[in-house]
Amino acid sequence: MWLVVVNPKAGMGAAASLATQVVGFMQSRDITYRMISPSSAAETKSLVRESLQVGEATRLLSVGGDGLFHLLLQFAIEFKVPLAIAPGGTGNDFYRTLGWFNHDLTDYLEHLNSAPPSLVDIGVVDGEYFGAVLSSGFDSVVNERANTLSWPKGPMKYNLAIALELPKFKPVEYTIELDTQILQVEAMLIAVANGSSYGGGMQVCPDASMKDGLFDVMVLHPVTKIEFMKVFPRVFAGTHVSHLAVEIVRSKNTYLRLTLPETKSHGKPIVTLQPAVRIYEQVIKHYQPLGMVKPDDYLFLPYINDRHYAHWVLAFYFNWVLAKTDLKLGPHGQERSLYSLRHSAITFRLLYGQGIDLLTLARNARTSVEVINNHYASSVTGEQNIALLQSRRSKQ
């Protein structure tokens, strides 16, 4: 059964009209469906999860914008059910990337009814899946400003947000580790693209494919404000990629690469888990207006020159959070501290690192195999990795 989820406010009411067409089609084809129109994201999550858990819904259809589709994508992957989208939002970029934007809606619904589901690539950041484009830089600033504007409506509010934010925007420094290279760049915008467009048709990575197993990473290097205004309109046609300041590379994974002072005879760089990318971007964004994102600035509390005191401040607030959340003591009564974060990160990789060996983990953690085995792996049991123990090598 199709679970048709409608956000009637999406697309300035376009989704409500679209839902009528969808329901009319399903009734004319005797397709079993249930339509819901929750009033909030929380209600949407509750109703969708309930329908999937009891086995009522076997397919999901999002009738709304990219926000509703993003929410339903999490459930589609969790419950392993097909997900389709009807273009009821302002941007409709995932629908556009699928190649149906210029087709009649009836043709698309006929395709959903007759063709078997097909697999597409999906990205993940901070534990959430995304379908089209993940971006950081000027466009993120513009999007946040646009969301605060009550006027004008529709795509025009993004143009106003651009005019408001561009005069004070400064390029951001990034370190991005890809499969074959490391990018250390200063950029106005970076987009990690699984699909070709975002922002209502901006072809940020026009050659990106959802079926090639790769991300297209677009880097817009620093340009003058006047040059940016010349380049930016070209993104709607995808012709911006020919500009000398634009660079696109392809990769399967995106991480931060950290080069730290040598300690305990370990001088190699380390790589982070994926959520660290989001945290890094948020910290950079926070300190950027203060001019504290230069290469020699510290990432955390850069305004405190005494780093011993800065460490004390971080530890103080970390302990305050532990106390407020009743997490100060571990399950065996041990007292947690800021150093516990390192223990958690290493243990997490041991449990969920898909067979990561101790030598690789030790080198990245800048410690020894003996320390990993004696202090971190000692609490890991065979049952916690039963899937790995029972796995088999695939035939080459």
Can you tell me about this structure?
The chain has about 400 residues and is an alpha/beta fold. It has 3 domains: about 1-120, Probable inorganic polyphosphate/atp-NAD kinase, domain 1 (Rossmann fold); about 135-270, Tumour Suppressor Smad4; about 300-390, no CATH class. The chain has 14 helices and 14 strands. It has helices at about 15-30, 40-55, 65-80, 95, 105-115, 140-145, 155-165, 225-230, 275-285, 305-325, 340-350, 360-365, 370-375, 385-390; strands at about 1-5, 35, 60-65, 85, 125, 130, 135, 170-175, 180-185, 190-195, 215-220, 245-250, 255-260, 270. The strands form 5 sheets. It has a 4-stranded parallel beta sheet with strand order 2-1-3-4, with helices on both faces. Strand 5 and strand 6 (about 130) form a beta hairpin. Helix 6 crosses helix 7. The mean pLDDT is about 80.
